[in-house]
User: Fold Acylphosphatase-like domain-containing protein from Podospora pseudocomata.
Amino acid sequence: MVKRVYFLAHGGMVQGWLIYHAARLLYFTRARAAEHKLTGWVRNTYNNKVEGEAQGAEDALSKFLKEVDKGPRGSQVVKLDKEDRDVVEGEEGFEIRR
Assistant:
């Protein structure tokens, strides 16, 4: 079953650098999405959080969200909000939006 989820990752400090954490989590998220063959997008928010939408097989999506919730090594995700969304037909790839 294909599913789509909106996510918002609230990060903590990484060696005193909140912005560094957001940028690192952005690229980490894209890499994990590619690994799990998900489609969608991710971007930094104005307040240094990371948000996006991911779509794919339910089991792959679940693994992806667990990895995003954990975050990359050396950083910290304090909270991960999730909300189901409508599936986008014909979507290809997982992109970083600005």
The chain has two helices and five strands. The mean pLDDT is 89. Residues 18-35 form the longest helix (18 residues).
